[in-house]
Hints:
By secondary structure, this protein is of the alpha/beta class.
Amino acid sequence: xxxxxxxxxxxxxxxxxxxxxxxxxxxxxxxxxxxxxxxxxxxxxxxxxxxxxxxxxxxxxxxxxxxxxxxxxxxxxxxxxxxxxxxxxxxxxxxxxxxxxxxxxxxxxxxxxxxxxxxxxxxxxxxxxxxxxxxxxxxxxxxxxxxxxxxxxxxxxxxxxxxxxxxxxxxxxxxxxxxxxxxxxxxxxxxxxxxxxxxxxxxxxxxxxxxxxxxxxxxxxxxxxxxxxxxxxxxxxxxxxxxxxxxxxxxxxxxxxxxxxxxxxxxxxxxxx
Length: 273
């Protein structure tokens, strides 16, 4: 372990419908890896808040994270977070759950466009290239609106659709037309004192890179970005901390000397070295 404060600030437990392991199992894996801190961030898809039971599951996740923090208090710092999906598609739901729990950390994410399925569920097999580009333009637009909303701490996996469009369906995408939109997002994050997440899950998937990739991480730094969180996006105990060391290497290359861990919604800057 060459990084003393190695931390993973994006993992899912059985309180997320697409994960199966308990908070204790995730923490045990983190402790074995020698992590300094682990933040549990179970899913809350705001447009399906009560229909899918997120109102109950997130409260359960919060209490299990707090209980795990007590169990592991001498081995690992454990924080209670949430991955708040599509908050503008269910603003009352977002308001309700953020008021209900004293989270340490709030990740904001966009998994689907308004009125459409999650990007991983879309059928790209017969989709025209122009349609794919149109989806991406709308994705970045809705992410920008979410950043303007601003009731979160870090922006999760910017470039999420590429995990499926490029990684799984091998559709060649020229990212350059979206750079003006991405730049606006990065600058608005900085203006709002928000963090950018370096999500390392793409390293263990067909995409083969972090989300966002190094060029955008470097651009964020060049614009004056200060706060960056790291997350494996693990949905099982075996993936906890996966790729996080590589994420720190990318941060160093981009010119960062610190990464960020949020405690009680406040950014704590941790030295990379």
